[in-house]
Sequence to fold (325 residues):
Amino acid sequence: MLEELQGKGLLIHHWDADGICSSRLLLEYLADRDMTNKTPELGNYFLTEKELADYSNYDFVIVADMALPEENILRLAKNAKIMIFDHHLGKEIKEVFHHNPVIKGENPDEYPSASWIVNDFLGNPVNLFSLLGVVGDHEQKIKNNTLFSKILLDFCQDSNLEFDDLLKAVYLLDSNYKLGDKKAVETAPQLLLSYKSADDILDNDQWNKNFTMLNKEITKQLEKTADEVQGIILKKIDTPYNIISTITRKVAWENGKNTLVINTGFFDDKDQVYVRSSKNLEHMIQRGKSLGFKCGGKREVLGAILPKDKTDSFVEEIMEFLTKN
Fold:
């Protein structure tokens, strides 16, 4: 189906390692096409009016690792052929090519990243970029996945790598968005086209400088006290860096408890809310969308952007949901 794409193409991808690696795989496959890759404004799980206007003159648009709102997709589809490769929860958009095994009922454990789904669709063998997305979305937890722990072990042995090398490579790729550098995020997939091994990523000087700076900020935020309410970890942070997912992951995995983090410092007029839970969060993701918030995620993850005056009420709803038996 990708072979049929003609004209000028746009690739819209998530800003994290999974999105970057998914984009890299697609750009490699479509190397003979006239392609541009973009990520939404960092922190936005939707396209702004300006972005929608700017993107209206492409012949085809591919969306990777993002569950953009249906209205965004249908608007783009008025002028372009649309293809989506994703693994997040949401609604299948039947008017376009929407390749997401998870929303079609497949086991999420078999499709842990968009990079894996893209790589499988392209018919590629297991490779570094297909696995970096997996590691990026699950980190150490992927070792609990019997299928992928074996795939990762075999790849590391064949490539003379440690799992921690892959994890460090993910952190380096993620450093661009966490520092709010949209241009660097969009440059990364192009740069990865010239990279042949994990060492190329690990030796990138700028990404290592980013990583050192971010580690200081993450450590500072983690050292601040969190509350525990009815067995749920509730943590408030105020940082201009886009590190809420990292903070939530670290707190949740350290405590082994449902965790909710609020960041009041990334946007001037909105807050970020992020949840990691052992409960299926699909209901609350849909609830957030019904309230008009930009909300998305996976079975165990919820991310939302909402007006500051709506944060407390939505957090109360999430807490009530998490404390129900």
